[in-house]
Specification:
Length: about 450
């Protein structure tokens, strides 16, 4: 490449701005409940060790590759893959990889916004004291009443989409960067406050044993598959978000170093969430394996009986909103940049169109919990189908083809130039992992997710 490309959208002001933004994209609702839950179900500390190995061989190599492609192309994922395919003398069919990422981000945000709306609603519910003295039946009814009311769901979905599009419309530095500079430190502070509270409970040691004490007898082949799958999905890979954020990365930023920091921060958030949640769960005699119900059905019971429960409950659901918000702005960014670059729209207009279409798509998820709850395709509601299509098919396939393009289609000279890893052995290790080990791991995760290996 004779002259480095430049993004028309600008770039991050510093490496730390990118680290905060990419960490914000990776940290989402899944970090707050899913990682602690699957850790407890699969061997505690032993599972954490397996997960960290999977992050190293699956997550980090693909994230490095996706950032590299984004910075090399400096455009939206569709145009980036087209430009890099031409540069490598490859087929323009590689543009389909960019399309897959843009569409996946759009589809995920359409239902992610609805779920984030639940968290918004619960901030105000917790503040009103409605959980005080509640029963399991009563708290469960509060949740079912919310999801069964399409008008309320629509209102919260609309508010969250407006919050998201206001940030995205303001651009890279004026919107995305300013938002994550506030959201990510605030998220960490909220987590630390909740961990500090958990340390005052009698069950803190029990919670730490549940989360960190190795029990290798619980590790199975399925546990390893779960660890590989979560390592891939937790870093926001394969949906275009990391690629578009990578297009704003300054040339002198080390992709390898920043990727390790992002993966470390994402894992730290998950561990802190476990340290905050499980002592509260055990202190109140609740069930730690409640899955998604842990957030909206089980924990509100604990908040209703603990000392200072109103404050802790409000802080917890604000934490959920912040985690969802920092992820949502990255999910829609690829679609917005495509409209700006390919259709000559202003960023404001591109945001309006993207936001409206995503909002409309979200109606399908809203109705999945009430009007359309009995309408199923292949045994799944509209929401379940979107979730399955994106999480089990589009994202792993996107990650697989990112690995294949960066290691097989892209020239060694180009990838070495962009990654700029000073140690030759470091580059050789990345290339080996992304050529052989990572694709095999993703294929196994994909086959397991679609039921071929079950």
């Amino acid at each position: 490449m004779s002259e480095p490309r430049k993004s028309i959208h600008g770039q991050w002001s510093s490496r730390w701005a990118f680290i905060l933004a990419a960490t914000g994209s990776a940290v989402g609702l899944g970090n707050i409940w899913k990682f602690p839950y699957i850790t407890g179900e699969n061997g505690g500390g032993a599972f954490v060790l397996v997960y960290l190995v999977c992050i190293a061989i699956v997550g980090i190599p693909i994230m490095m590759a996706e950032i590299m492609l984004g910075r090399r192309g400096r455009q939206n994922p569709i145009n980036t893959m087209g430009a890099l395919a031409r540069e490598a003398g490859q087929s323009q069919l590689w543009r389909l990889l960019g399309w897959s990422g843009v569409i996946a981000g759009f589809l995920i945000l359409s239902y992610y916004s609805v779920i984030a709306g639940w968290a918004l609603a619960y901030v105000f519910r917790a503040a009103s004291g409605v959980f005080i003295g509640g029963t399991a039946e009563g708290v469960g009814k509060l949740f079912s009443d919310l999801t069964g009311d399409p008008e309320r769901l629509l209102a919260w979905h609309t508010i969250f989409m407006i919050m998201t599009m206001i940030v995205v419309a303001r651009g890279v530095r004026g919107g995305l960067e300013k938002a994550v500079r506030f959201l990510m430190p605030a998220l960490f502070v909220l987590l630390l406050i909740l961990v500090g509270y958990a340390m005052t409970t009698d069950a803190f040691a029990q919670g730490m044993n549940f989360l960190f004490k190795p029990d290798f007898s619980k590790i199975s082949g399925n546990s390893i598959l779960i660890a590989m799958g979560h390592a891939f999905f937790t870093l926001s890979l394969g949906m275009g978000a990391i690629m578009i954020y990578g297009s704003y990365v300054p040339r002198d930023t080390s992709i390898a170093k920043t990727t390790f920091l992002i993966a470390g921060a994402d894992t730290l958030v998950a561990l802190l969430a476990g340290m905050a949640i499980f002592p509260i769960v055990f202190a109140n005699g609740l069930e730690p394996g409640a899955g998604p119900g842990l957030i909206f059905k089980t924990l509100p019971l604990a908040f209703g009986y603990m000392k200072g429960g109103i404050v802790i409950g409000v802080l917890f659901f604000i934490l959920l909103v912040f985690a969802a918000w920092s992820s949502s702005i990255s999910l829609i960014e690829p679609a917005v940049t495509w409209l700006v670059e390919n259709h000559g729209m202003t960023r404001m207009r591109a945001c309006a169109w993207s936001g409206i279409v995503t909002w409309l798509m979200g109606l399908g998820t809203i109705f999945s919990f009430n009007y359309w709850s009995e309408v199923k395709l292949w045994g799944k509601t509209f929401f379940d189908l979107l979730d399955y299509l994106t999480a089990n098919i589009m994202l792993p396939l996107g990650g697989l083809f990112i690995a294949l393009f960066s290691a097989w289609a892209m020239s060694r000279v180009a990838s070495a130039d962009e990654l700029n890893i000073r140690n030759e052995w470091g580059y050789a290790l990345w290339r080996f992992l992304v050529r052989f080990v990572t694709p095999l791991a993703v294929i196994i995760v994909f086959l397991n997710a679609i039921g071929v290996m079950k």
